[in-house]
Amino acid sequence: MSYNNVIQIVNQLQIAMAELESPPLDLPQIVVCGSQSSGKSAVLTKIIGKDFLPQGTGIVTRCPIVLQLSPINPQSNQKEFATFHHNSKVFYDFDEIKEEIKTETERLAPKLSVSQSPIYLSLHLKNIPELTLVDLPGLTNIPTNYQPQEIVDQIREIVFSYLRNENALIVVVTPANQDIANDLAIKAAQQFDSEGKRTLCVLTKLDLMDQETHAMELIEGKILSLKLGFIPVVNRSQKDLNQKISIQKSLENEKNFFETHNQYKQIAYKCGTKYLSEQLSELLINHIKAQIPVLQEQISTRISKTKLEYESLRGDSLTEKSNSKGEQIIRLLHKFCQENTETINGTSTKIETNKLYGGSLINYIFNDIFVRFMSEIDITEGISKHEIINTIRNCAGPRNNFLVPEKAFEILITREILKLETPCLKCIDQVAEELNKIIKSLDLPEFSQYHNLQNQVLQVSSQFIKFLVKKTKKFARNLVQIESAYINTGHPHFQYPTDLITQITAQKRPKDFFLTNETKPKVARKSTDLPPVPSVIRSVGELSESQKKDATLIYQLMKNYFEIVQTKISDSIPKSILHFLVYHFRDNLLPVLHSHIYQPENFDKLLEENQVEVEKRKKCYQKLESLKKAKKIIKQVTDVPGFYSENSFPKVKSKQKHIFSSSKIIKENDEKNQSFEIKDSNDSNLFSFSHVSNENQSRSLFDVNRSNRSKDNTPRRRRSGSFTLSRNRKRSDNLEKIDSLIKFGNW
Known about the structure:
The protein has about 750 residues and is of the alpha/beta class. The chain has helices at about 5-20, 40-50, 95-110, 150-165, 185-190, 215-220, 240, 245-260, 275-315, 320-345, 360-375, 385-395, 405-420, 420-440, 450-485, 500-505, 545-595, 605, 610-635, 730-740; strands at about 30-35, 65-70, 80-85, 85-90, 120-125, 130-135, 170-175, 200-205, 230, 665-670, 675-680, 685-695, 695-705, 720-725.
């Protein structure tokens, strides 16, 4: 594999990743974008040297086209050909290639729509650079006839999806005879590469500019600064196309244009399609080499993660024997119950950090909701003094009250105690709801593999919770009814307000009717007809002082006793829920599931795989195989002569860039004598050494040539010398020794 063939490695990676719906790697690549009618397709046609890309007005490129260019020996008799990834056919006729692109475009994006799915085209031609380009749909603000308005946004999103890849070099094709500040492609590139570090601009239509104008300021970066610069080209005009001017003739005309132009002739060697091709090829090669170590690490990491994902989706392999299937069901039921228990107990390894969950949420329901609600109940808010007086009088029957009847107190407090049943039952429902959430959210990938079994387990578990809820509610009702059935006024914590009772008793002394001889003055008799009895009689109007004190006494007695009941219920209900519902569910779920589900005649149905999971596992396997394939492909990089991987050399803790990163190594080996040279991109000799080996060590001579001139334009000096590398020393130590000798200058 030649030095430049590192591009083929990325081409192979692209094909490997193309089989996946969402490729897991952002591969280094060159993406070509431009607005419609910018001359983008014409530029690509001249680079390739063949007329095969569909051209015309409006939106012609409706999906990304990945052009993988591989040169063949011009001296060979091999025919030029092309292949598509979607088609095994080998194409020799470029008109057929053009038609195949149109056909595949229509399949991916029918009825003048656009598609994110790329077309992969490998071109094996003579006199082309080793290069891979992604031709993107042309940006536009206005859809053509018969195209929906949303196509503008769809094209923009397709282009943006490639530009946002940090590993992509961006080639923007823009007309030089238009205001570059308003160019859609330039704006798009700046959105994702604001500093212009990975953007190169190709200027077209220089031959269409007014005679007195030129684009030198733009080319020199005075208007817009791009690190990769500007390269002007001249495409074939419509007149050239009508006259069927060949691409080769067009290249000659382009060269002549720049060499004879008053402004461009001084930079003619940096203009034109040939120079553009060379620069793109060199940029891509260097970019790939810089990114390979990162890709190696990414691939290894993704393989590890995908393996774990696949193992969780794969589950245990089963034989056709029923006992094996039964063991699988038992294992899954046991794991389900174990996860449920750990979630309730708070011992799960999958602890939630963003919210309360499982047992902790049940505790929150008890203490922060139920107990707090119970403690905030004010018994005096639900009853009026008129109600109390009516109850007292009703309890006295036909007699006047001498003391406040105890029966009135019991009636009133019993009614309030019974009201506590509602929050108790509500608390049970809240805990049951959380138990249902727990079983539905248990993260068991191998369990979800079997949809029928999963549904059956959830159904039985939910029914078991309902059964326990009924049992728990019955006990809760009994607790409340027990408290209401017997009002224990002898409870040690029940305090009588004795001072208040003494005052009320003194005011209610009986009249001295039978203990005095005094008589009341007689009053003239009124009519013997009594007024009618009202249908409803309530205590209304202003209460007397005596009635107010009676009501106050009952209030106080009720409050004192209700606090006792509040405390008991607040303590008993959570305990009852834990015992009858939570712990019973936790400890008895496995035998309940076993008794309802473990039936041999249902094993086959229960272990039918969920088709969604089958498809998910299939895609995961494809992803894993593609990543493994990518790992094998990328290993070829180490066999490419001159390719340097930063991981192969010790890192230098210096601001200076390592010399090997922008150089090529030329080796010559025989059995005992070895030599190599390191050259820069201009083939200037930077460093050379040769050595003679014996059994224990290598004696080496080295020659270091720093760049011709330093920053202040003073001549740099050469360094020469010798050093010894031990055969017994680690390779990394020897490399460090070499590194210390060649660590000079910023290459």
